[in-house]
Design a protein that fits this description.
alpha/beta; TIM Barrel; seven-stranded parallel β-sheet; two-stranded antiparallel ribbon; 9 strands
């Protein structure tokens, strides 16, 4: 019996903030590491109108996703590699799609346009409404996170609440749309937690909110991205989602799929064994 070894969150040279490494070389490394399943989930293009609703550094939006003109070349390349390595690894083509409450129609149109090729995709929250009632990037630069989000909300629990309310909106959106399998790095808002010495505890109201979100994930038949990228971030040093949420997700029998969130060859498969160990330690 062959055991499935799956990476459900990876990127390619089409990502402007990545390493530029060729995705084929990343796939070859995954094969050499014994992976049987490999989802390629490049960042889908952002809505053009977002520029009018965004604050923060240019890189936070200009380098956040692939260009619209790169979508077709991306699809063609992954489809070619699927066939080339079909006897060695099961490659799935997909996207990591950003959720914006103000641009649900754009997201719906994108999903519908590529529904015939999407095999495995992720919906993530990388942007949050903050200072000036504008969108700010959650995980780009510490300075803009501080200005637009942390200082604006003034309290970590208020910031967490706004983020998880947005995640909740994304889950509700997915409840009526197919082709997206899971919620990406559910605690990305904690990327800078060590810089601020943020508590790992959630307030009672946030605990209730998170459990509501998890129940919605369960009822919608979605998965969670068990993302190891946070372990390698200077001020995070933790998996996404954190242990408290993983425990509750396990109790609800929500599937969690390992994701390296690799943006280069060096990242492929990183901390897979640790992620699997963490899952094995969770109580039922």
């Amino acid at each position: 019996m062959n055991l499935v070894k799956r990476d459900g969150h990876t990127h390619t040279e089409f990502c402007p903030h990545g390493s530029g490494d060729d995705v084929e070389k990343m796939i070859i490394k995954a094969i050499n590491l014994g992976f049987t399943d490999y989802s390629v989930t490049e960042h889908a293009p952002l809505p053009l109108e977002l520029k009018d609703h965004y604050r923060g550094s240019d890189s936070g939006i200009d380098e956040a996703s692939m260009r619209i003109q790169d979508v077709e070349p991306y699809i063609k390349k992954i489809q070619f590699l699927k066939q080339k390595y079909r006897d060695q690894i099961n490659i799935k083509l997909g996207f990591e799609i950003d959720y914006f409450a103000d641009f649900e129609t754009y997201t719906e149109d994108f999903i519908n346009e590529y529904a015939d090729v999407i095999e495995d995709s992720i919906l993530s929250v990388h942007f949050l409404k903050g200072k000036g009632n504008k969108y700010w990037c959650v995980d780009n630069e510490l300075e803009e996170f501080a200005e637009g989000l942390f200082n604006y909300y003034g309290d970590s629990q208020k910031l967490y609440r706004q983020y998880f309310l947005t995640v909740q909106d994304s889950v509700n959106f997915l409840a009526t749309h197919g082709y997206v399998s899971r919620i990406g790095h559910m605690t990305l808002i904690k990327k800078f937690q060590d810089y601020y010495s943020l508590t790992n505890d959630y307030s009672n109201s946030n605990q209730k909110l998170i459990i509501e979100v998890l129940k919605a994930v369960k009822n919608s038949g979605l998965e969670l991205d068990l993302n190891t990228a946070g372990l390698y971030k200077q001020y995070c040093n933790d998996l996404y989602p954190d242990g408290w949420i993983r425990q509750r997700a396990k109790k609800l029998a929500i599937p969690m799929v390992f994701g390296s969130d690799s943006h280069g060859i060096v990242d492929v498969g990183r901390a897979h064994s640790l992620a699997e160990f963490e899952l094995s330690q969770l109580t039922n």
